[in-house]
């Protein structure tokens, strides 16, 4: 009941409430992003949604226009505080997670949920092994268990197992805990560019 009906209803209500804040941020950050290198304000990234359906995920652009795609060894996107592809304002909105705010639009459209597994790239579908495809059983989220507790500090394959753990234990109370942890993580700016791995067992709630 919660997964099929209540969660979606809460997503819509909270996203509509947050929409004015998105517009305020857009009016403040948008011109700065544009003036930084005369490029587009938004970045539309192809991502895997529920049941493997591809959708366009909205973000405020944090990198220079036509920046090359750089990946880590596990196929996940590269993150570094010294990434030369990032603009000056891009470093700020990445650290504060402001770049993720436009995904409110994706939630309203039904592509995403507020809480859920962070969406993978379409090409990652061919790299799933064993039970890893289960992360596509629900809508991806603006934030999720892996994102809130580890951000970029663990490998992609390990994040998938946390995503499956979330799916198997999904509840409104779990979502509330993840939301609170996300706020704390963003405020303290933890785990944005770190790559140190952590184990699955020592962080389960």
Radius of gyration: 16 Å
Instruction: Classify the beta-strand content into a percent band.
Output: 5-15%
- Average residue-wise pLDDT: 87
Classify the helix fraction into a percent range: 40-55%
| Order of strands, widest sheet | 1-2
Separation, N- and C-terminal Cα atoms? 23 Å
- How many domains? 1
The overall strand count is: 4
Overall 3D shape: globular
The structure class reads: mainly alpha
Largest sheet: 2 strands, antiparallel
**Which regions have little confidence, pLDDT < 50, spanning 5+ residues?**
191-205
- Please trace the helix and strand order, writing H or E for each element: HEEHHEEHHH
Tally of DSSP helical segments: 6
3D architecture notes:
This protein is mainly α and 205 residues long. The chain has one domain. The protein has helices at 2-37, 88-95, 103-109, 145-149, 156-168, 172-188; strands at residues 42-48, 54-60, 113-115, 141-143. A two-stranded antiparallel ribbon has the order 1-2. Strands 3-4 form a two-stranded parallel sheet. Strand 1 and strand 2 form a beta hairpin. Helix 1 packs antiparallel against helix 3. The longest helix is centred in the first third of the chain and has 36 residues, at 2-37.
Features:
6 helices, disordered C terminus, two-stranded parallel ribbon, 205 residues, 4 strands
Question: Could you give a short description of this structure?
Answer:
This protein is mainly alpha-helical. It contains six helices and four strands; from the N terminus they run αββααββααα.
